[in-house]
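Q: Sequence in, structure out?
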Amino acid sequence: MRRPDEPFTAAVTGLGLVTAAGVGAEATWRDVTAPGAPPSVAHRPELDGLPCDFTYGVEDLDATAVLGVATQRLMDRFSQLAVIAAREAVADAGLDASVWDSGRVAVVIGSAHGGLPFYDEQSAVLAERGPRRVSPKLAPLTVVNGAASSVATDLGAHGPSFGVSTACSSGTVAIGTAHQLLRCGAVDVAVAGGAESPLSRLLIASACTMRAVSTRRDEPTRACRPFDAERDGFVVGEGAGLLVMERPEHAAARGARVRAGVAGYGASSDAHSAVAPDPEGNGIERALRTALADADVAARDIGHVNAHGTSTVMNDQIESGVLGRVLGAHPLVTSTKGRTGHTLGAAGGIESALTVLALEHGLVPPTANLENQDLNITADVVAKEARAARLDAAVKTSLGFGGHNAVLVLTRT
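A: Exactly. Output:
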């Protein structure tokens, strides 16, 4: 068993992505690196009358056809997306769930809200039709751990299985937690990341009141514009992003292709506000420095940052300042939320998978809709077109409501 302070790199052997940019890792990567058509943003009838009535959705997916009617009915939408992403990730890793040591397989999936849309639906049922008509499936379908439970059941994984909920850093914390499980030898394989389908009228209405989301109803495909001088808030999206991570000895023993490594993890709490980040960025800086130390990687070796980059005025500026203080001006920074939307608890999982692909391809995706970079943001933010570069190590940053910060250091194989 390794000491907790001993450097450890988990082998990433599989990726699974279901996003508004595409169904599947290859389709998503193709869209975020060479965007052709406008992003998959659409007005939602269920949001009529709200200042923000548009979201990013996974349009090219028939979940019933993939999962079957009976299976689909046992899951909320966020769990369905997680199961589909998990199947892709496990297949990509070349693992056979029918023969693996299932007691040594963990499932750790983050979500900020769980099955919130089903709450909306059942609240309406209660108000309009009475308590006898409320679904008995409300609890199992809506709990935050629903995605982890559904994936574990679908794969037959009998190791530790749990949900992580730290707002918008949930997916990143889930991967970091899986890294720790592998490091201490508790499991050999972990399926980890995030899943979210937060297309809820109640949630979006609250976000509008908070002034956290963009209200560019006349140009929704250009509304999410991280680091741009005219950004006015994020745009909610749905999706799932999962990694298959293994102990390096386990991956080597079966001759697995290793796509990248998760080498370091850092987490912290701002302990500042329920919604606003620490204006000095002390919390995210602490998490970033912890992750670098954990990975035993120097700041100068980080070539790329997939930033949290939400397109909100304060967050983008604070995050950029921290990256400059810790990493300097050399890393190529991007936010991929202009193509996927802000998927809240799923964001860290999706963006970590995209960071793995950036390391593999030596290519940093552009930040969609970035036309005039905010002069207060001094980072080298990639815009317009993807930029090729040799990348040996990269960072994924996440900030969540409540001051939950999480950072991963990923390395090229």
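The radius of gyration is 20 Å.
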